[in-house]
Amino acid sequence: MKNLNFVTALIVFLFSTTLFSQISGTVFRDFNENGTQDVTTSYNEVGVAGVTVIAYNNLGEVGSTTTSATGSYTFSGLSLPLRIEFSGYTIGDYSSAVGTSNQSSVHNSTMLQVLLQILE
């Protein structure tokens, strides 16, 4: 009977523990609109510094950061699900449609493409 109680307690602990994630990405100018950051002789799609990146859960804002000189940003220790929003691009940047052709599912997608990496 003791073994059964231990297993039950372990299962309750595993399912009641909140898992935290790391979300990182890069904001860059996607000149050829292929959804991939290309650095070639044809395209030098550099990262964009100074873009504000805000993470929200269902209760509101849970984190905020600004992209680095290379356009990268990271959030750590946040629990999923999250919504990520971007603001503060320069006048030369403009909106594009969300869809499969630009390989982005970000709802406020722009010509500034965003690469996300989520680590759980």
Q: What do we call the CATH topology?
A: Immunoglobulin-like
Query: Can you say what the CATH homologous superfamily is?
Result: Immunoglobulins
What profile does the largest beta sheet have? Answer: 3 strands, antiparallel
- What integer value in Å does the Rg equal? 19 Å
- Poorly predicted runs: 1-16, 107-113
Number of separate helices: 1
The number of distinct structural domains comes to 1
CATH architecture: Sandwich
CATH class, please?
Mainly Beta
Please state roughly what percent of the residues sit in beta strands, choosing from under 5%, 5-15%, 15-25%, 25-35%, 35-45% or over 45%: 35-45%
The side-by-side strand order for the widest beta sheet comes to: 4-1-6
N-to-C span? 35 Å
| Strand segment count | 6
Relative helix content: 10-25%
Characterize the overall form: elongated
**H and E string:** HEEEEEE
Tags for this model:
elongated, mainly beta, three-stranded antiparallel beta sheet, disordered N terminus, 1 helix, Immunoglobulin-like, 120 residues
Detailed description of the structure:
- The protein has one helix at residues 2-16, and strands at residues 20-29, 52-57, 60-66, 72-79, 83-87, 112-119.
- With 120 residues, it is mainly beta.
- It has a single domain (20-119), classed as Immunoglobulin-like (Sandwich), CATH 2.60.40.10.
- A three-stranded antiparallel β-sheet has the order 4-1-6, with no helix packed on it.
- Strand 2 (52-57) and strand 3 form a beta hairpin.
- The chain starts with a helix and ends with a strand.
